Amino acid sequence: MINELSEQSSLDDIVGTVSKLRASGHPQERIHHAIEQVRLRRKALIKFGEFAPSMLFTEAGLEQATRLSVASHHAGRFQAVGMSSVADLGCGIGGDSMAFAALGLEVVAVEADPLTAAVASFNLASFDNAEVENTTLESIDLARVESAWLDPARRDGVTRLSNPDDWSPSLDVAFGIARRLPSGVKLAPGMDRELIPDDMEAQWVSAGGDVVEMVLWSGTLKTPGVTRSALLIGPTSSHSLSAPNDTEDVGVGELGAVLYEPDGAIIRARLIGDVARSVGGHMIDPSIAYFTGDRHVTTPFAPAFAVEEVLSPKPKDLAKWVRSNDVGTLEIKKRGVDIEPAALRKQLPLSGPASKTLIVTRLNGKKVAIAATRLSH
User: How far is CA 34 from CA 17, 18, 71, 279, in A?
Assistant: First the structure.
């Protein structure tokens, strides 16, 4: 039934198929669940791509699931250090377990919620090297595996993420396991940095430009001598940068010919200084994460923009600039200022053939709008 509904491309097609299913005697509740799976499968395409149409989901499970492109990097890290088995503690719908199993690791996927465990069992059914156990973390004998993967859930209603008990299992429990076994602990990228253990590597990960997670790596999964790293995953390649600790920022200077926007993972990992130094750049403001230079040096860690002019950020002045430059396509970026790009766009007479970028930010403490053109990598 789910596959039959999935094949329909429009709402009218689905309505027609539902009518036929009802006429064939299928219970309304079963049809409702099938429609829900079709909806979730379509929503899951962004995370699971071509695998989504053959998987089952729960709303919460899909929301919390790791993108498959990111999960493959997790699994690759375990494989690279020679791990042959892993316990996925709190496996959810099984996204990370699928990636581990696909690389040949023996996987024990643990999930306490019965419905979610059943969904994970379905998604892992094609892997002979993966088993799902509907039980609690405390009930698992970790002596059975060489390593562990943990994805602690944020407790309901928690927003600040500054207390170890804000997660389930608590960070104390998760870190205890990570010190017993080589482990990866997936956490929110914005968690309180004071909670990051000194003996683990904190890696911030961005996928397609969005910072999606921070992972703490322990034991042999930790890169020797590294406590801070960033991983940038793109459509066709990935890039990583690491350091023993937070790196020292570069100084502030005048705006040069090129403006660089470091990836969010670089910013979160506090590696901006290393990237800026690699292109011979300096910051544009003490509180803004843009840096600048006199020439374009290609780096995968910071898209670059050719600076054309510095403008007043007032909408009437920007409207004048738009008209005089025949701008019809405008990318609006902001950092460190209180504006709404969508609202600003409505005030500008965009109608010409030119394509530009407008960066509203602070330059040595002054609010400005920088007219620029995006440079290719």
Answer: 12, 10, 27, 53
